[in-house]
Amino acid sequence: MKNKINIKIIIPLFLSLLNFFCSNGDGDFDATGTFESDEIIVSSEAMGKLVLFQVDEGLNLKQNQIVGLIDTTQLYLKKKQLQLTIKAVLSKQPDIETQLASIQKQIETAVTEQKRIESLVKSNAATTKQLDEINSQVEVLRKQYNASKSSLTITKEGIQNETLPLIAQVEQIQDQINKSIIKNPVDGIVLTRYAKQDEVTTNGKALYKIADLSEMTLRAYVNGDQLGQIKLGQKVKVFVDKGEGDQEEMRGKIYWVSSKAEFTPKTIQTKDERVNLVYAIKIKVINDGYLKIGMYGEVRF
Question: Could you report the per-residue pLDDT of 79-97, keeping only the tens digit for each?
Fold first, then answer.
């Protein structure tokens, strides 16, 4: 009877010691932390009324998806006014080909006469004086043509240059119109909405916050003694609570290790809770939809 009592005492004690040594006496985790994600605050780049704003918290948006529109009526009218002004200015530029057509016709007629007289001179039916006169006439007409063309070209270029500042203003207004179209910058889920449709917004005003939650970052902390156990690219096990004492195991990869120590955050535990200085590490974890920003997680190396 006495031996049976000893066995009942020894077996539980042995199991307790075995569990203690398997866990190294330091718990079941090497580091802990919270999950975070790169959050982007989308702000207005224009001023006016939000005539369209299709954003709700929890909504999954795609990159470059149009989610809103700021009223562009005044910008459109200003652009149209500038375009009409440009058209009016350009209407004053000369039609070079039309204005030179008469001189070109005179040159062609003179050249024809020149060739006829050259033939007559060769057959002694005309004098060289007549040939010199027609040669001089052709030369004068050609100089007149070149001078007129140069003058008309300069005039046309001057008028076109007058429109350059107007064209720049049109481009500036078009840029403002483009910025009035609100496009979502990244794939992700809307975390917070700061504005509503039909509100008046201004430049730089926050409209909503979005984050890509398909891949989360676990920011954990390790002490100096643990630095030798980790390296960039190392795969680790990550555990999160499922409730009722159960944990979900996930795979993660260390992609960043801080080069500077910091005091242990109050909300974070380490393998040795007496450690004051710790190093932050970041672990990428693929999110299957279970992970949330701020959720607590444990790491085993």
Answer: 999 999 999 999 999 999 9
